[in-house]
Write a structure and sequence with these properties.
Length: 476
């Protein structure tokens, strides 16, 4: 007995903009992902003013899943997937975002995609907004700094809940909504919320305002889903990077606690339907005057999520400093290197035990079912002539994480619904826009410059994961 429950959702995860391509097909509009160029480790992706001639936009073609999804789902089925997490590109359904009527061609695409999954016994798990909101909502409305976005998102949500209610049971609202806690860089605010800042603008309150509107939109969507069909399950989606104190000095411990407050209060609102007091006190201390109405607070209270979806790739570490007596957390300055763990080629800390810790942390705080909807190892793969990749390093990473996940379930009693490793087929990296940062069990022949046949081939980890699923996590 492995301890994973009956019907445990083994599968894989992707997001529309990172694999579909077909950026203008079927009436699709331009999304925020379509105006981001390719970067690299240490080289941020450029966010351009619209789509410019001569720039490399890797998401436009991605891995052409839009035309090849049947072949890809066939491969997922061969691995024994029980579920497949992807997102609905908002711009296929509402190309500009503010239309009153949806685009039928976009709706039909997801009908066909979900039917194909179901034909293979694979249950679709769907994120509503995964770093791909309509770009028009950025240029015309300023993104999520504008309250009107709540209505646009709710309209989109209701259309897809209604249309797919008999094909999709598990939903999530905003992917990694808490990434934007890191408001000093440009990537997270733009991909989470379509935020572009003016030079010199005080970014922090804007981040809290946009997050608030998203949390209200999420709560209203949860409520709408229940009204449309009580069988639907709607979760949140949190990027979990637990923040450890560098030492056991009490100040470091306080710093780590406060850092966790600032990165994970989003979960409190999603799950408990209200703001934690520490954050309200912080708003007061900083003099942030946010647009939070009584109606909003009522909506939050009535739209608590059914489960917690989260990604886990790495842990962080922090320490106190003399110039920060209130232990305020600024993700661009407060993190330190953890000397006890290794790092990936992209500087991500490899820490399987942190996954067990995270599962316990969520369970202790919220007692809601948990779903690990992303986990994985971005690495440089070298394909042989026949397309095979000997990715033992990926197997090592994933098996160590599944082993810790099992301890959390069997020894610690955490309620875990499923596990969908990230980028089950190679796709465009969100953070860097590269192809060479690969996560897949399936190799895709395409490089950073966009060259390659796009052909698919099985890596060593393909067979490994098939065995994991077949043995329900016994054979690691
Ligand atoms: P890439 C930062 C930290 C943790 C997860 O990321 C993150 C990010 C943003 O880069 O994003 C999630 O592709 C996200 C996926 C993304 C995946 O992790 O930068 O939900 O869209 O591809 C991996 O290596």
């Amino acid at each position: 007995m492995s301890g994973f429950k009956e019907g445990f959702l083994w599968g894989g995860a992707v997001a529309a903009h990172q694999l579909e391509g077909g950026w203008k097909e079927g009436g699709k509009g331009i999304s925020v992902a379509d105006v981001m160029t390719a970067g690299a480790h240490g080289v941020p992706r450029e966010i351009t003013d619209g789509v410019l001639q001569g720039k490399n936009y890797p998401n436009h073609e991605a891995i052409d899943f839009y035309h090849r999804y049947k072949e890809d789902i066939q491969l997922f089925a061969e691995m024994g997937f029980k579920c497949f997490r992807t997102s609905i590109a908002w711009t296929r359904i509402f190309p500009l975002g503010d239309e009153l009527e949806p685009n039928e061609a976009g709706l039909q695409f997801y009908d066909d995609l979900f039917d194909e999954c179901l034909k293979h016994g694979i249950e679709p798990v769907i994120t509503l907004s995964h770093f791909e909101m309509p770009y028009h909502l950025v240029t015309e409305y300023g993104g999520w700094r504008n309250r009107k976005l709540i209505d646009f998102f709710l309209r989109f949500s209701k259309v897809v809940f209604t249309r797919y209610q008999h094909k999709v049971k598990y939903w999530m609202t905003f992917n990694e909504i808490n990434n934007q806690a890191n408001y000093h860089e440009d990537f997270a605010p733009f991909t989470n919320s379509g935020l572009k800042y003016q030079p010199g603008e005080d970014r922090e309150p804007v981040m809290y305002q946009a997050s608030h509107y998203e949390l209200v939109a999420s709560a209203l969507a949860v409520r709408a889903a229940r009204e449309i069909n009580p069988a639907l399950q709607v979760g949140c989606m949190i990027a979990m990077c637990p923040i450890y104190p560098l030492t056991c000095a009490p100040g470091d411990m306080m710093m780590a606690m406060n850092a966790m407050h600032r990165r994970y209060w989003f979960t409190d609102v999603h799950v408990r339907g209200k703001y934690p007091q520490h954050l309200l006190n912080y708003f007061e201390r900083r003099g942030f005057e946010l647009d939070i109405t009584d109606e909003d607070l009522a909506a939050l209270a009535e739209g608590c999520v059914d489960y917690i979806g989260f990604s886990y790739y790495m842990s962080f570490a922090t320490k106190a400093s003399a110039d920060n007596p209130q232990f305020d957390y600024d993700e661009s300055k407060s993190l330190v290197s953890n000397p006890y763990v290794q790092k990936s080629d992209w500087g991500w800390q490899i820490d399987p035990v942190g996954l067990r810790y995270s599962l316990n942390w969520f369970w202790d705080h919220y007692q809601l079912p948990l779903f690990i909807v992303e986990n994985g190892f971005g690495a440089i793969d070298v394909a042989q002539d026949d397309g095979f990749v000997d990715d033992q390093y990926r197997i090592d990473y994933l098996s160590a994480h599944v082993a810790e996940m099992k301890k959390a379930v069997v020894e610690d009693g955490v309620d875990l619904m499923g596990y969908t490793p990230w980028g089950c087929i190679d796709l465009v990296s969100a953070g860097t826009g590269e192809m060479k940062k690969r996560y897949g069990f399936i190799y895709v022949d395409k490089d950073n410059e966009g060259r390659g046949s796009l052909s698919r081939s099985r890596k060593k980890s393909f067979k490994w994961y098939k065995d994991v699923i077949e043995s329900n996590g016994e054979k690691l």
